[in-house]
Amino acid sequence: MARRQGLTAVAALALLALTSPLVAAKPVTADEVAVRDIVTKIYAGYLRPFEELFPELPDDAPPAPNHPIGSAIDGYEAPFSASLNALLQKWMPVATGDEVLQMNGFDWYCQCQDFDPKQAKVTAQEYNAKSKDQIEVKIRFTPGGREAAAITYYFVRENGQWVMDNIRFEDGSTLRQGLQEDIDGATLTNAT
Questions:
Q1: Maximum mean pLDDT: which of 142-146, 177-181, 186-190
Q2: Alpha-carbon span 44 to 53, nearest angstrom
Q3: Where does 80-185 show beta strands of DSSP type E?
Q4: From 133, 165, 170, 187, which residue has the greatest number of CB atoms within 10 Å?
Q5: How many angstroms separate the CA atoms of 189 and 175, rounded?
Q6: Over the Cα atoms of the chain, what is R_g?
């Protein structure tokens, strides 16, 4: 009798564990883990105190984004696909030669020009495998002081590695579109 009650208790615990919201509905794949690692590294710097990120600044000085273009606030550079990297290399001379683009300081990853690490947070993450070589990541990130922005990352597998291929921003535009528009605009300006 005691043995039967013990088995019933074990079965009840197993059922509870399977229905608990803490148990993932589907197993996390190694591919998702690799992409999650990239996303975690992108946002890690935005969640660190200013004094760790910018030890040379006075405590009350808000930092202006001066990290390299395409990198996260702490300098982390996500791996880009070959085609996105080629577009970035074509765009880089335009960006460095355009005073407005340099002064803009807009950050792709936080959808902001400044942020508050005391309030900044990733409020939602959703990973969807679109195929064996494509993963779409939907992030909601708030830099603090305003509502979270919806950002969608498109990752592809290239040469056995997961790399970022595009970003869709809150307004529906994409990184690739913006880069190409800047390139086209510079080409038109230089042609006249």
A1: 177-181
A2: 11
A3: 121-131, 134-142, 149-158, 161-168
A4: 165
A5: 21
A6: 22
pLDDT in tens, 136-146: 999 998 887 77
Q: What is the full DSSP assignment across 142-159?
A: E-SSSPPEEEEEEEEEET
- Looking only at Cα atoms, what is the longest distance across the chain? 92
Element (H or E) spanning 82, and its range?
Answer: helix 82-97
CA distance 83 to 66: 25
Question: 130 near 153, Cβ under 8 Å?
Answer: no
For the entire predicted model, the pTM comes to 0.74
Contact 75, 46 (CB under 8 A): no
Cβ neighbours of residue 111 closer than 8 Å, sequence gap 6 or more: 141, 143, 149, 151, 169, 170
Tokens 């869709």 identify what position?
168
Task: Please write the tens of the pLDDT for every residue from 81-113.
Answer: 999 999 999 988 887 765 555 545 567 888 776
Count of residues in the chain: 192
Question: For a pLDDT cut of 90, what percent of the chain falls above it?
Answer: 35
Degrees (nearest 5) of the Cα angle 79, 81, 86?
110
